[in-house]
Design brief:
The complex is a heterodimer of chains A (103) and B (168).
Chain A lengths: L3 H21 L3 H25 L7 H31 L13
Helix pairs in contact in A: 1-2, 2-3
Chain B lengths: L2 H19 L3 H22 L2 H25 L14 H21 L18 H9 L3 H29 L1
Helix pairs in contact in B: 1-2, 2-3
Chain lengths: 103, 168
């Protein structure tokens, strides 16, 4: 069995990759993909702390991950609907060109 | 570090980096699916079988396909004019700083010492236990989650339909 900090380092790496993608890519769908990666990194942290925690019988980490996955699925559905709506409106899915609110 | 964990983490992170770097959006979405499968296998290795299969069902089965459909509907697979934003270096520097901070915290933290005691014990997570907890102790969050999913579904449909309705 691997020690806890290996899982935490994997999670940190995944979070950083997702953050870099969400900050640097232009396409709105890829920004959403980066956000999904960050959410999954958080889920990995929950499961690692559940597995190595003092009483894993309580299943708290598992329950939190189940609800986090459900919320992430809802977020992905609404986010992709927003991207499709923005594409219909602006004829682009480049987040740099959707700047009508810019002062 | 065991060999299987090294392979799985390499697969996960490599596919995530490929998903973020690839120019073709469909390839990016498929790389995301590979990364999520790797993560599901890591969950299985952690002893959380139910979460691993839920991860494959929800993320690989539903969210990845949803992303592919969104790419199809926005014609995004055509080469976008630019690959990254006007200032890619600032984003990369921020991400690198976040990773360095997290890694430094994880390796230096004294709070993690108490978590090492349970590493050898075998934790069995039966789906029956998860189901029992969901309908007894966590029944109210479960109902709220059902309400949230219904609202999100209706909201997604309304948002995606709105423009067409206004154009008629």
């Amino acid at each position: 069995m691997n020690p806890l900090h290996h899982y935490l380092l994997l999670s940190a790496l995944l979070f950083s990759v997702g953050l870099a993608g969400a900050l640097t890519r232009r396409h709105a769908i890829l920004v959403l993909v980066g956000i999904e990666l960050m959410l999954n990194a958080a889920n990995l942290n929950f499961l690692a702390f559940w597995r190595f925690g003092p009483n894993p019988e309580a299943l708290t980490g598992v329950m939190f991950v189940i609800f986090a996955i459900a919320v992430a699925a809802a977020e992905a559905a609404v986010g992709l609907a927003l991207i499709i709506s923005i594409y219909r409106h602006f004829r682009t899915s480049n987040v740099d060109e959707v700047n009508r609110l810019k002062g | 570090m065991s060999l299987s964990f090294a392979i799985l983490s390499g697969l996960t992170v490599g596919a995530a980096v490929a998903a973020m770097c690839w120019r073709n959006l469909v390839h990016s979405a498929l790389c995301l699916a590979v990364s999520l499968v790797g993560l599901a296998l890591v969950y299985l290795g952690l002893g959380a079988e139910f979460i691993g299969w839920v991860q494959i069902l929800v993320y690989v089965g539903a969210v990845s396909i949803l992303i592919v459909f969104a790419i199809l509907l926005t014609r995004g697979a055509e080469a976008p004019p630019g690959r990254v934003t006007f200032a890619p270096w600032s984003g990369l520097i921020v991400a690198l700083a976040v990773f360095i901070t997290l890694a430094w915290t994880v390796t230096k933290s004294k709070a993690l010492v108490g978590f090492a005691g349970n590493s050898s014990g075998d934790v069995s997570l039966a789906v029956k236990d998860v189901g029992g907890k969901l309908v007894t102790e966590y029944v109210l969050p479960l109902q709220v989650m059902g309400l949230l999913l219904t609202a999100a579904l209706i909201g997604a449909v309304i948002i995606a339909l709105h423009e067409r309705k206004g154009r008629k």
